[in-house]
Write a structure and sequence with these properties.
Elements (H helix, E strand, L loop, with lengths): L7 E5 L7 H15 L3 E6 L5 H6 L3 E4 L12 H11 L4 E4 L2 H12 L8 E6 L7 H4 L6 E4 L2 H10 L8 E3 L17 H10 L7 E6 L8 H13 L4 E6 L7 H13 L6 E3 L6 H6 L3 E4 L9 H9 L3 E3 L3 H9 L1
């Protein structure tokens, strides 16, 4: 039997703060390390760097995702990096990093350069800027929804180059029926006492207009008018650019008299625990999502899930 070659794989993305792309990057890096490969990640950094490095992967802090013409100056530097580190697979997960990676890769010797892979995580706007995500030698689609989107909107992408690799969750990490320990629950309900003894409805996801927060607030209001003992959790953080929208949501909650009925948890590292104590988890995105990771996480834990029947969320709910 031929001996397995240990690979050096470089993943590129803008930052490692939070989100499904970021968590997927960590999971792939960890899996590579477990199998004896070398896992490199390049980003501007963030709070997920520590767990990435702890898993045995290596992080390189580059402003590879900055939307600026100055970022093009990284092309030559990246080309040297790929050669020096003997990278076997160059894996771009976002558009600006993909452009830098592609320009660096294109200028290398085709006989010795890495293989170039892209992952299409979302239904990007159809334009030349986004087209780069379909230029990989292999193009990974995270769901059938995304594959169909690529085929319909980028017909010059060869279908045989597209590989559907569904995003997923590790069953050992999300076992059915799991609940957080009493100490965590006591701490959580001390922080959010209005949720104690209530049916908890959770809307996970970063604060953005597309995630359906306003529809969620209206839903809680309707349920309260019917006399139901529910409490809504908006579980997710807001970036600097979304602070005004967050304040708008808080004002809406106050103006509707729901301050005791809806809690904003902010960015959390214990979302699994919050999902596990929920009575119902919701996905209310106004636009189809490419996958819907929290949908699958909730279902794996055995928590009821409801969402709009479109995109990746509809794809998941139709298959259970």
């Amino acid at each position: 039997m031929a001996e397995q070659k240990n690979l050096t794989v470089l993943q590129l993305l803008p930052a490692l703060e939070s989100g499904g792309v970021e968590r997927g990057t960590l999971e792939i890096a960890h899996a590579l390390v477990e199998r004896g490969h070398r896992a490199l990640v390049m980003s501007a950094g963030g709070r997920l760097v520590a767990p990435l490095v702890a898993s045995g992967a290596e992080h390189f802090a580059w402003p590879i995702g900055k939307k600026s013409l100055k970022t093009l100056l990284l092309v030559r530097r990246l080309r040297r990096f790929l050669a020096e580190q003997k990278v076997d697979i160059l894996h771009a997960r976002s558009r600006v990093p993909a452009w830098i990676a592609y320009l660096a890769w294109r200028g290398m010797n085709p006989a010795t350069r890495p293989r170039f892979v892209t992952t299409v995580h979302g239904m990007y706007g159809v334009n030349g800027y986004s087209r780069i995500m379909t230029r990989g030698e292999a193009v990974i689609a995270v769901s059938d929804t995304v594959r169909d989107y690529i085929v319909q909107n980028y017909p010059d992408t060869q279908p045989e180059c597209i590989r559907v690799i569904h995003r997923g969750v590790e069953g050992r990490v999300y076992p059915h029926g799991w609940k957080p320990d009493p100490a965590w629950q006591n701490t959580f309900f001390a922080q959010f006492p209005n949720a104690t003894g209530k049916l908890i409805l959770t809307l996970p996801g970063r604060i953005t207009r597309l995630k359906g927060h306003e529809a969620f607030i209206e839903l809680i209001a309707r349920l309260k008018r019917r006399g139901l003992g529910v409490h809504g959790l908006i579980a997710g953080g807001a970036s600097a650019s979304k602070q005004r929208y967050l304040q708008k949501l808080r004002y809406r909650v106050r103006s509707m008299g729901l301050e005791a009925d809806i809690s904003f948890t902010g960015q959390r590292d214990d979302l699994k625990n919050i999902l596990a104590i929920s009575s119902l988890v919701l996905s209310l995105s106004s636009q189809p999502e490419s996958f819907g990771r929290t949908t699958l996480e909730a279902l794996r834990l055995g928590v009821p899930m409801a969402g709009f029947d479109h995109g990746g969320v509809g794809e998941i709910l139709r298959t259970i």
